[in-house]
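Subject — a protein and its fold

Tokens — whole-number codes for backbone shape
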Amino acid sequence: MERILIVEALAAEAPRSAVTVCGWVRTRRDAKGFSFLELNDGSCLANIQCIVDAGTPAYEALGEVNTGAAVSVSGALVESPGKGQRWEVRAGELIVFGLADQGTFPLQKKRHSDEFLRTIAHLRSRTNKYGAAFRIRSETALAVHDFFRSRHFAYVHTPLLTGSDCEGAGEMFRVTTLAPGETRTDEDFFGRPCNLTVSGQLEAEALALGLGRVYTFGPTFRAENSNTARHAAEFWMIEPEMAFADLQDDMELGEGLTRHVIDHVLTRCGEDLALFDKYVDKGLADRLKSMIARPFARISYGEAVGILEDCGREFEFPVAFGADLQSEHERYLAEEHFRRPVVVYDYPKAIKAFYMRLNDDDETVAAMDVLVPRIGELIGGSQREERLDVLERRIREMGQDPADYWWYLDLRRFGSVPHAGFGLGFERLLMLLTGITNIRDVIPFPRTPGNLEF
């Protein structure tokens, strides 16, 4: 007998005489002569109701089947007389795969806090909220790949193990085969210090200068001892790179990707988004629609500082030209001043990475950030420095050794071209799409300081 997903059963166009659905029991209710089972298999938010009549072999198999048990129900898909559902299953056979002990099963019908559910991350995908969050995560990843494929970008894979520090921050995880106490890195596996990458950008640049347009989408790591709601030690980054492109191209690509993903999720994840709109962040759907109703605003860093200095708001972090914008500044610009996403460009060189192209004023670089409501910075990118002499000087100014980047410098020796790219934090994008305010709750198994369970 054909097994179908619950989402397929609920979308059926006509009754079917023989179906099999599998899932986990959400509730069991007994009445005189029959029982109701509500099943969910994770394919959608809705459950399907199964009616098990007394006298059928299925009824005898109910036994200790309760919330959390895994079962298979075979029978007829028929129209449901109850409200709120079109179809239900009239069970003829029930197979019990695994029971759930009611004395220890931690998921009950009551609402559980996010903090509690983080302690049982192996089970939280069975809840409505996290099932919806992780389905949206899946659809969002698909939307990202669709966007770049439609624009002829090649999907590339960059190393997770690296000998260089792309960001220059030094907050990297060390990877070693040396025994505790051993310090001779020349005897280590690679014969030199090795770290987990914080970005695939440098390697993506190399591939873009041969393939034209590329993007990488994978895990990155940062050993930042931060327990904020915005930071995790392991997170996913989307990093496109374009040859023969400048800052304007970069801004247009970042805006295009953001708009495409929002539209995709609004179109494909309506039921799951409605849950977040109702219970997590009221007005979420309307806010997302408003973000793609108009073009994003665009201002220079200098203009942004001027707006912040003149707004009359007292910020926790003072606003001054030459200082990096903080989350509160970014959110003010997007949420209150422009009330839509805004792209800020041309930042002071002193607060940006060595690879960003130096502008003619010798004070700013061709960098851009996309700021969105509720999140602040969603995308950070730039036109890359394609001039060999300028790049070497910038590497030294940042306190790093050009010899460590010999291959990166070679790209400027052999057929250098203007090129640009950015990094988009996938989890921040998911926070924008769901209204979830803690990064730990858009990652199935979050890695944060002191937390390495599961």
